[in-house]
Structure formats: C-alpha cells, structure tokens
Design a protein that fits this description.
alpha/beta, single chain, 4-stranded mixed β-sheet
Length: 85
C-alpha cells in the first residue's frame, strides 16, 4: 500500500513538473470516464491501474516514467489507482 501511494504521488508530481495542465483523481472509474469525456480527446489523458496493471482503454498506467513532457504537456489528466488516489 505504501509503495502504491508513493508511486501515485510521484507520477502526479512528475506529470505536473512536465507541464500537465491539471490532474483530477478518482476512486470511481465510471465517474472518471464521465468527467474525462467532457474534454477534447487531444487535451486529456486517462491514467489508471488496478492491481498494478494498466486499465484497458486508458492511455497510461501509473508509472512516473510514462508521464513525459512530450506526453502530458498542456493536457488534463484523469487518474485512478488501486489505492484510491
């Protein structure tokens, strides 16, 4: 659990450092999808994992290495992880 929290917060910090517009976090995947769909596809990313695996249909999992400047700059991130972050 502690590692999950550290990984999620590191991913969030790195995404913001690399120019993400903002990050919304969700425990509920349906609510995440409802919120994300309101944004233009090219201006949003859905990040999520369950049990350490990327959620099918999402853009990224929960790896700090995946939130590079080229990927996240100027985008709103919608994120959910196993631990509820």
């Amino acid at each position: 659990m502690v590692i999950d929290v550290l990984r999620a917060t590191t991913t969030i910090s790195r995404a913001l450092k690399n120019g993400a517009d903002s990050i919304q976090v969700f425990a509920d995947l349906d609510l995440l999808k409802e919120s994300a769909i309101k944004w233009q596809a090219e201006k949003r990313l859905m990040l999520g994992e369950r049990g350490g695996k990327k959620i099918e249909g999402f853009d990224l999992g929960n790896s700090p290495l995946s939130v590079t400047k080229e990927v996240v700059y100027g985008k709103r991130l919608f994120m959910s992880t196993t631990n509820g972050i």
